Amino acid sequence: MSHHIVEFKDVFFRYPDGTEALREIHFRIVHGESVGVVGANGAGKSTLLQHMNGYLMPTSGTVTIGDVVLTKKTRREIRKKVGVVFQNPDDQLFMPTVFDDVAFGPLNLGLDEASVRERVHQALSVVRSLDLRDKPPHHLSAGQKSAVAIASVMAMEPDILAMDEPAANLDPRSRRSLITLLKTFKHSKIIASHDLDLILDVCGRCIVMRDGRVVADGPSAEILSDRSLLEENDLELPLSLQRQVMA
Amino acid sequence: MTFDERYFDIGRLDRLSYKDTCVHRLDPRAKVIATVMFLFTVISFPKYEVVALAPFFLFPVLLMTVGEIPILFIVKKMIIVSPFAIFIGIFNPFLDTRTAVVIAGIPVSAGWLSFLSILLKFALTISAALLLIATTSFPAVCHALRRLGFPALFVSQLLFLYRYLFVLMEEAMRIIRAREMRSFGRRSTGMKVFARLIGTLFLRTVDRADRIYYAMLSRGFQGDVPTLKRSRIAAADLAFMAATVAFLAVFRSFRVTEEIGRIAQELFL
Q: Are the beta carbons of A91 and B211 separated by less than 8 Å?
């Protein structure tokens, strides 16, 4: 299928206060590809992700999702295709119970009751959180919250997943199960993270950003083992590779 | 109570609603309607009424017992809000001094009666409202209101209030802790700092509201928070409402306590 493509063409974005957040962003992600976006704080990773489903619109250039060009009119359509998982699950889980939250997307898609229930069940069992369904989000642990946040996006059955720091605030075990989970998804994925080991584990391809520009784009194994490239961009070798070098 | 403790105490009201008793299982709409009828019946009594209010305590007491809600918890919550009622009625005994009844030779002024009446009505209404939430959960009450025809905007505001109350309190808790850690035991650092804390909290809230709205848009929000119908009015709910109506009608129209008193007098005197 060709329609799970994400394409950024010469995208520039300037915030209203004049900050140039994205400059000349140009890349293409094909169906089923997993792409990690890394870079220092303020390099433009989150801004990039917010373009994926039209929360921000490029100042110039085009964003194409599948065969639809992102405009104010196509935004709604595109939001059905691209699921965005936020950095802070508290922002994402806004309904009073887990069930309501996961059902929110499917209900807005206009599905009937039976299929909404089916989707909620499906999504919650994928992240192994079925027993949390009646709990309010404020009684969940951080790991449970992020699992439910992923479920709430999965329930919309998006073609493309965009995640902003999915492993932030997770303990090592929850992080590991998140990585295992991400590997099972067949979607095209874009993951912005400082967790370079996670990127190395999950994403075949990696984009390095600096000051709103893409400075490197290539296979993760290559880019994330290039010590001088990483250090130039205020990053460092993933821990797993540091160990190998020492040994 | 410190701020932290108070925070966890709010969570408790919430946890009570997870229980599974026959009161908890009733349809939220039935409970909302019953509670509203109860509230209106109680406040419909004239301002000097004391004796006839007494039997109405049966309603909250029954709910509390069958719903396994700890009485101390409800009483504590009532005490926290009681100043409102006390200050409304506290001047009545001084303003309304004509003698209304004489009990055991001591004249009791009408002001005291109306003050007592206010307190009783307060206790009845607050306990009924607290019990509604403790046995139904706040979101279920909101959904019930929506299905009873309340405007969508109003109900979604209530839902967000409930959801983000906890998040906001955690945020406030973090700010307060950070302040305490750097104020080295000086208890109050003055109004200026306090004003800035509130300002910070407000700014963070605005940012968060922005992100939440983005999250909602990302999942197809169109102005109404959609909900599933998850309950059906069953025979038990109808029975519950009928019993409530009968209970309220009997105690509202017959002065049952006085009758009992009269019969007792006839028997023993």
A: yes
Structure confidence by residue, pLDDT tens digits, B87-146: 888 888 888 777 777 777 777 788 888 888 999 999 999 999 989 988 888 888 888 888
pLDDT of residue A77: 87
- All structural domains of chain A, each given as residue ranges with its CATH number in brackets, are 6-94+157-246 (3.40.50.300)
- Positive or negative torsion for Cα A202, A206, A209, A214: negative
Query: Residue A65's beta-bridge partner residues?
Result: A6, A68
The alpha-carbon gap from A48 to the nearest alpha carbon of chain B, in Å, equals 15
Which pLDDT score is estimated for B149? 86
Mean per-residue pLDDT for A217-234?
91
Check if the beta carbon of residue A156 is closer than 8 Å to that of residue A105.
yes
Interface check for B218 against chain A (CB to CB < 8 A): the answer is yes
Could you tell me if A114 lies within 8 Å of chain B, comparing CB atoms?
no
Residues in chain B: 269
Pair A65, A52: CB distance under 8 Å: yes
Amino acid sitting at position B216: M
Pairwise CA distance, residues B161 & B10, whole Å: 13
Q: How far is A152 from chain B (nearest CA, A)?
A: 9
Q: Does the CB of B219 have a partner CB in chain A at under 8 Å?
A: yes
What are the sequence ranges of the domains in chain B?
Answer: 1-147+231-261, 151-228
Cβ-defined contact of B216 to A94 (cutoff 8 Å): yes
Alpha-carbon distance of A140 to B104, in angstroms, equals: 59
Burial class of B263 by CB neighbour count within 10 A (0 to 12, 13 to 18, 19+): exposed
Q: Is the pTM of this model over 0.80?
A: no
Strand locations in chain A (E): 6-14, 20-29, 34-39, 60-65, 68-69, 82-85, 160-164, 188-192, 205-210, 213-219
Token output for A209: 């950003």
Contacts by B227-232, CB closer than 8 A, 24 or more apart: B227/A100, B227/A107, B227/B143, B227/B146, B228/A103, B228/A107, B228/A113, B228/A116, B228/A117, B229/A113, B229/B147, B230/B143, B231/B27, B231/B28, B231/B29, B232/B27
Task: Report CB contact under 8 Å: A100, B166.
Answer: no
Question: What tokens were used for A67?
Answer: 């065969």
**pLDDT tens readout for residues B23-55:** 888 888 888 999 999 999 988 888 888 888 888
Extract the tokens encoding A225.
Answer: 């083992």
Q: Do A96 and B229 touch (CB under 8 A)?
A: no
CA nearest neighbour of A209 among A49, A55, A1, A14: A49
ipTM (interface predicted TM): 0.80
Cross-chain Cβ contact B215/A94 below 8 Å: yes
**What is the amino acid identity at position A156?**
M
Q: Which residues of B touch A138 (CB under 8 A)?
A: 11, 163, 166-167
Give the residue on A whose Cα is nearest the Cα of B165. Answer: A138
Contact A108 B215 (CB under 8 A): no
Q: How far is B218 from chain A (nearest CA, A)?
A: 6
